[in-house]
TrEMBL record:
Principal cellular location given in the protein's record: endoplasmic reticulum
Subcellular location: Endoplasmic reticulum membrane; Mitochondrion matrix
Catalytic activity: L-seryl-[pyruvate dehydrogenase E1 alpha subunit] + ATP = O-phospho-L-seryl-[pyruvate dehydrogenase E1 alpha subunit] + ADP + H(+)
Top EC class for this record: transferase
Keyword set includes DNA repair: no
Record Gene3D superfamilies: Alpha-ketoacid/pyruvate dehydrogenase kinase, N-terminal domain, Histidine kinase-like ATPase, C-terminal domain
Source species: Ficus carica (Common fig)
Stated name of the protein: Protein-serine/threonine kinase
Amino acid sequence: MAVKKQACESFSRALIEEVQKWGCMKQTGVSLRYMMEFGSKPTPRNLLFSAQFLHKELPIRIARRALELETLPYGLSLKPAVLKVRDWYLDSFRDLRSFPDIKDSNDEREFTQMIKAIKVRHNNVVPMMALGVQQLKKGIAQKIVYEDLDEIHQFLDRFYMSRIGIRMLIGQHVELHNPNPPPHCIGYIHTKMSPVEVARNASEDARSICFREYGCAPDVNIYGDPDFTFPYVPTHLHLMVFELVKNSLRAVQERFMDSDKVALPVRIIVADGIEDVTIKVSDEGGGIPRSGLPKIFTYLYSTAKNPLDEHADLGVADTVTMAGYGYGLPISRLYARYFGGDLQIISMEGYGTDAYLHLSRLGDSQEPLP
């Protein structure tokens, strides 16, 4: 009740009732293939149709998340950082609902500018929610085991999966307005993406972070056909490979730091199957104890030190690296699952870890709608 009261203090009763109404409506999922086929002809008519779809779809998705943010267990809904995120969602819902019906190209252009602003408003949702969870962890009794916080894990999975979908839909629509799209690109989708090339770029980014932190970085060897391409979203793949390689580099670096032996390279293997493209990231960084494996996909566990500052200004920049608040792996798995793939981690304690990133190459799977 307290949360409802707080929401009503800054937002009108009518708005809260409308959020409840829209939160009960059915969401409509789209597939990578549909986004690609639809976006291949960004005519004014198609852009108008796309804007009309988003005008109805985005409020439903945003309302669902706003409602969930009100009813989180263990008092998480009342944490200052979570209240801030909820306010962003309610502001965005109000912006969308107060925008009149989209009837022509002028309306469509104005709508595009508005959803662009909504996307920027939500840039820091991930670190802000992480801060909320951190505020919760400080307050809960030590005897509560993280596995007992299953409800929170499930909520965050749904919440971040929904966020990936919302940002994909907005980003795709906005990018279709680009008068000079890069070759073979339809919005965010690259129709001839080379996974080997993306893996190389992501590895270089991860190594530069490793250099910054440790003063050196193990090599990364990539095996696979550089000419092999398939349609996918390069930014999604970059994020996932970057996270896996960064974890491997850190494990190898820390294992060999005080040793006379040369740090062994991290290996990336790209395999193109009929159904899946699989990317394996292997390291000899000592592995993860079997008891620790269930924790690596939770949002309440990290092996790195926590970089979040209670007083940091998270309202400005988009946070790129996710090391330290334990979100890299669970969010990477959601990105993989968003288009029908998956992420699995297999570890040999005392030796190393293999991460298998499966990407569906058919592009037919519907968005998983939480």
